[in-house]
Amino acid sequence: MKSIATNSTTYSTTKFGTLNVIDKGLLLIKKNKEENVILFSELNKIYIEKFKFSFLKKTGLLSLFLILIAIFSSYLPIEIVLLTSILLIPLFAKINTYKRYQLNILLKDGTFFVKNFNQDTKQEHIKMVNLVRKEIFDNQIISNIQKETPSTAKKISEDYAFPSLSIA
Questions:
Q1: Nearest one of 18, 1, 37 to 103, comparing CA atoms
Q2: Per-residue pLDDT reduced to its tens digit, 141-164
Q3: How far apart are CA 113 and CA 106, in angstroms?
Q4: Nearest CA to 17 among 34, 4, 2?
Q5: Is the CA virtual torsion 154, 41, 121, 6 positive or negative?
Q6: Which of 5, 12, 29, 112 has the fewest Cβ atoms nearer than 10 Å?
Q7: Which tens digits make up the pLDDT trace of 47-90?
Q8: 2-50+102-147: which CATH architecture?
Q9: CA–CA dist 105, 48 (Å, integer)
């Protein structure tokens, strides 16, 4: 568990493996089969971040490949060097297009839950985030309706009531 300090607030970071939506909240299952239940009222933010290799990392990796090819060319025959360079080009292309995503759940008490995933499961996680946000919205609507007092509801119904029509 890591701690992140930002703007005088300390967050404790915990990784989890599976996220399930239950009636009143979320069920987070960690890698070691430990379960956490988070109520929708405790949830502050839920969002997805996108990570790519930075330009500096890509440049460093490319320079490492070129240095290896230069070293190999001084000790190995040129055919083997050309073969390895041809094999390294698709690897570099894969690294260049690889995207990693991170599902972040931030609670009001400062606990931060994180799940890393790749592009293959991106749509499933987006649907899960949208479902959670919909459930939070629905719970806020229900709690606001329950907080409304009966006298207010009666006053509103009297103000917007239609007059009865009488035919004489």
A1: 18
A2: 877 777 765 555 555 545 544 444
A3: 6
A4: 34
A5: positive
A6: 5
A7: 999 887 778 887 888 888 888 878 877 888 888 878 877 877 78
A8: Roll (2.30)
A9: 9
